[in-house]
Each structure stands twice: as C-alpha cells, then as structure tokens.
C-alpha cells in the first residue's frame, strides 16, 4: 500500500513540476515580447492604411470636383491631374514599403529584446547585430522626419476644404442677408490648385451651396481629415520605434563593452 502511495505522490510532484515549468516558460516568452515595438507596429499599420486608403479616394474625389465645377477645360488642370496620379502611385509604394518595414522592425525588436534581457543563450550581441540595430535607428529617424513633412502636407487639403465648408456654413447662417448670398464666392485659384486662366475657377452663391452638398465634397473632406489623422498616427508610431530602437541599441552597445571588459 505504501509503495502505491509513494508512486502517486511522485506522479503528482512530477505533474506540479511540469506545470511550474510550463508557467515559467510562458513567463519567459512573454518577457521577450517587445511590447513597445508591437504597439508601434499596430499603430504604424493602422496609420499608413488610413493615410493611403483615404488619401487615394480623396484625391480621386478632388479631381472630380475640379472637373465638374472649377476647371471645365481639361488642359487647364492637366498638370494637376498628372500630379495626383503620380501621388496615387506613390501611395501604393508607401503602403508596400511600410508593411515590410514594420514587420522587419518588429522582428528586430524581438531579437534585440531577447538579447538585452538575455532570455535565450543563443541570442548574443555581435558586431553585425549592433550595426544592423544602428542602421534601423538611423532609418527610423530619417523616416520620422520625412513623415512629419507628410503630416504637414496632408493638412493642406484639409485647410482648403475647411475654408470652402466654412464659407458654405456662413451662407446658411440666418444672420446673412439673402440678397448678399450671391456675392459670397470661393476662388480655388488663390490656393494654387489650378492656374489663374482656368475657367470658371470660382463658385458663388447657390452654385457654391450645391458644391458643398455634393457627395464628392462631403466624402473627400472627411477622407482628408482621416488621412491627416493617419499620418499623425504614423508619426507617433515612428517616435515609439525611435525610442525602442535607440534604447535597445544603447543597451546592446553597453553590453558589448561590458563583455570586452570581462574578457581581460
């Protein structure tokens, strides 16, 4: 009877040790997750998707508005149409590049986090690894500065559409004299979107009100806002990437010096 009890006790002890081992393994794996890089990757993917998707559709709607209401002669806005098409192709490239770059940065975050915390014996700091980490730090800083410019540029169409929308809202205001509505105009040529010789180039009164009520204007205006917000989210994601990659690179460099000192 006693040997049976001892065998049961040993079996329960082995089971508890296995559970403890699995728990410690899970904790160890969770400790190697680069949470900052993970959050930045999700934010970067979301921001780039919003910027590229909404920006592409908003540019198409802008061309439709210009052709139907502000520049009815094709040759007047031919250059603008070519620029918008080029920007749409650039958007495709941006989406593809940041999809790959985000995955690479996340993988690099897993590697450097494990090396910094020394969770796995096979993850050691090497000169090649430190050089790659330094390269990602440099590229991320460059991309962060570039996306600050993209964020500022994406605010320009929001400003233009807001001016048109605020003018329409002023026309609908009850304090506005009905006889003076036709004198309220919006001239898009002053924004440099189309040349000064474009016809008609401006919209006044009821025509302007009809433009503000179109689905193209309403959709493009809000899509530009979302695209601008997406660019801002991407800037925040790159800032998080900067902090995470810079910290990991600094710790790896410090550990390499520490290893060199312990060899002598």
From TrEMBL:
<dbReference type="GO" id="GO:0022010">
    <property type="term" value="P:central nervous system myelination"/>
</dbReference>
<keyword id="KW-0472">Membrane</keyword>
<keyword id="KW-1133">Transmembrane helix</keyword>
<dbReference type="GO" id="GO:0043209">
    <property type="term" value="C:myelin sheath"/>
</dbReference>
<dbReference type="GO" id="GO:0019911">
    <property type="term" value="F:structural constituent of myelin sheath"/>
</dbReference>
<dbReference type="Pfam" id="PF01275">
    <property type="entry name" value="Myelin_PLP"/>
</dbReference>
<comment type="similarity">
    <text>Belongs to the myelin proteolipid protein family.</text>
</comment>
<dbReference type="InterPro" id="IPR018237">
    <property type="entry name" value="Myelin_PLP_CS"/>
</dbReference>
<feature type="transmembrane region" description="Helical">
    <location>
        <begin position="89"/>
        <end position="111"/>
    </location>
</feature>
<protein>
    <submittedName>
        <fullName>Glycoprotein M6Ba</fullName>
    </submittedName>
</protein>
<feature type="transmembrane region" description="Helical">
    <location>
        <begin position="223"/>
        <end position="247"/>
    </location>
</feature>
<feature type="transmembrane region" description="Helical">
    <location>
        <begin position="132"/>
        <end position="162"/>
    </location>
</feature>
<dbReference type="GO" id="GO:0061564">
    <property type="term" value="P:axon development"/>
</dbReference>
<dbReference type="GO" id="GO:0005886">
    <property type="term" value="C:plasma membrane"/>
</dbReference>
<keyword id="KW-0812">Transmembrane</keyword>
<feature type="transmembrane region" description="Helical">
    <location>
        <begin position="38"/>
        <end position="59"/>
    </location>
</feature>
<dbReference type="InterPro" id="IPR001614">
    <property type="entry name" value="Myelin_PLP"/>
</dbReference>
